[in-house]
Amino acid sequence: MDARQRVRDFLKRFYENRPKDFFKELDDSERGMYMVMHMLDGADGDTAAGDIANTLGISTPRVAAALNVLEKKGYVKRRTSETDRRRINVKLTDSGRREIARCDKEIFDNVEYLFDTVGEKDMNEFIRIASAINKALVIKNGERAAGGSDNKTL
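^ thats the sequence. predicted structure below, dont judge the formating
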């Protein structure tokens, strides 16, 4: 497995297994914009604003707020659908693609640095512990476990 794929796998597991209550504030403030841009980066052509909310599992007001900020920064462009005037289509701009590439590089560089300094084994142990913390909080709060994990025990 190449280094970039290792980093992607780690980030996916980290996001799925992080203690959601502990990171709630960070998620609420940042999740919208970065995740919206990432989704648009992988889309073919325009994407409906409502589809963004459904795919990412975030509210339509959060999507609207993220799109307002992203549009002001020049990262996305919104336009009304030519076939359905009720539908707003969104597309990532070239500037938005450059910003996603910059963010991804920074994240990948940081995780690779952690792999090199802390060690991949310890980083994976961190994921296991974060998963256990998340499961404990889910049980405490009576919620259904969200996200996947290979860790079956607390």
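The beta strands are 47-48, 76-80, 88-92.
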